[in-house]
Structure formats: C-alpha cells, structure tokens
Amino acid sequence: MSNRILHKSALLSLSFILTGQLALASPTLQEGSHGHDVLLLQKKLQSVGYSITSVDGVYGTETERAVAEFQRDNKIRITGVVNNATWRALKNAKKVKWGVDIKKSQPQSKARTPQGPMAPNNAPILARSKVGDILRTARSYIGVPYSFGGTTPKAFDCSGYLQYVFAQNGINIPRTADEQYKLGLRTSSSKQLVPGDLVFFTTYEPGASHCGIYLGDGEFIHASSSKGVRVDALSDDYWAPRFLGGKHIVK
After folding, report:
1. Among residues 34, 36, 222, 248, which one is catalytic?
2. Where are the domains of the chain?
C-alpha cells in the first residue's frame, strides 16, 4: 500500500473519531506537531468553545493551552498532550453555552471611566470598605464569554475583565496583566491573600500572563479562555503549577 493511501486512511480515521462515527486508535499530538490531524483538533476545540485564534494545523502554545484547559475541565490528566483519552472526550464534548448564569433581562452597564490618575504601583489601592462592591461587581458577570482583547460585558479577556470591574467602582487600573502585576504588594504565600486582592499566573508566555480577583477560601474569579468568567480554586490541577503570585491591594 502506498504512503499516500496510508496517509489518507489515517486522516479518515481521525475524522471518524471526532464525528463519532467510529472509535479507532488516534494519533498522539503535542507541541511541535503539525498537519491535518492538528487542524482537525483545533477545529474541534474551537467548535466546543475553547479559544483558538490560529486554526493553522500547527500545534503551538495556544493549542497546548486549550488542550490543557479541556483536559482540566474533563478531569483528564493535564499534560497538554492529546492522547486517546483526550480524543475520546473530544468526541463526546458538547459546545459550551456562554452566559448561562446571567439573566437575559439583566442590563449590561456601560463602562464608567474613573476620574483621576491611574492607580499607583507598589501600593494598596482598594479601600477595605469597597471590597464587597468589587466582589459583587465581579460576580455579576459570571458566564460572560472570553474573547482575546475583550473589555466589555459582551466578552472579556482576563485583564480587560479586571480593568472593567475596577472601573465600575471608580478605580483606574492598567489594561494588561503584566502592568496590573505592578499594583499592590507582593505576598510571600497565597495564605496571606485577603478577598479583593489580585492573583496572577504564567500561562501562554513568561511572567504575568493571566490574572484574577481573590474571593477568599482559596478561590478566585477570572475570565477563563475556556469558559469565560468563572470561579476556580488556586489548588486546581491546572492553576496551581501556573500560580505566579498574589498582590495585596486591599488597604
């Protein structure tokens, strides 16, 4: 049998796996892989709600992150490598329904531009009396979808979400996660965090590339690239090894 026929057979097998028509052995994919198999993987992840902007058949950092988040959400060992267990879960995956926790009749307020200068770096910026307001505002957007570059309740990215929540409460903070990481005072342990503080993670690039607001009891709220605004635990198998540190911003 020619190599061309063998390649065509492998592609058909993978297509059957993803469409649920047949359960066959599937290829192992990881960072550095490329080709039609990766393209099918990216399209499937995208179709069930995971954020992939480059559907190009190249298994890069973005695809690895989406796979790891899918594995986390489906209680598969988080490796970022697509194995048979991941293919089987993808076959049965359903599209994420965005915004299911938000009442459709709820008005989506426009961003309020806070008056005054940008919040200072390396200092607490949030009055303890306003923590409750910040957390209520943050929770009111649970279920809003994720979009890279999103800064409104139509869709948020992680730092756009934080900036919007704080703006709604009259506090002007920077737009990006790495700049937001300069706020407040670094904590030596997550146990020193209090509700309202900020938490940061290293995900798709070195340094602070993801952020959220600490809620207390080991939980934080953030704009997840897989399921939009949601609450997760710092001890989560996906987030714990990526935790960069907390910043104490509550006065």
Report:
1. 222
2. 3-92, 128-248
pLDDT tens digits along 207-222:
899 999 999 999 999 9
pLDDT range class, residue 97, cuts 50, 70, 90: very low
β pairing state of 219-224 and 151-152: unpaired
Matching CATH number, 3-92, of 2.40.30.70, 3.40.50.300, 1.10.101.10, 1.10.150.530: 1.10.101.10
Residue 211 known to be catalytic? no
**Structure-block tokens of residue 224:** 């997840």
Whether 7 is a known active-site residue: answer no
Q: Which of 52, 55, 51, 47 is nearest to 94 (CA)?
A: 47
**CA 247 to each of CA 2, 182, 234: distance values in angstroms, whole numbers, following the listed order:** 59, 8, 14
The dihedral region occupied by 88, where left means phi > 0, alpha psi between -120 and 50, and beta the remainder, is alpha
Domains 3-92 and 128-248 share a fold: no
**Beta bridge pairs of residue 82:** 29
pLDDT average, residue stretch 42-60: 84
Q: Per the residue annotation, which of 7, 34, 36, 158 is the catalytic one?
A: 158
For domain 128-248, the CATH architecture is: Alpha-Beta Complex (3.90)
CA 239-72-189 angle, 5° bins: 15
pLDDT greater at residue 103 or residue 111: 111
- The answer to whether residue 158 is catalytic is yes
pTM: 0.64
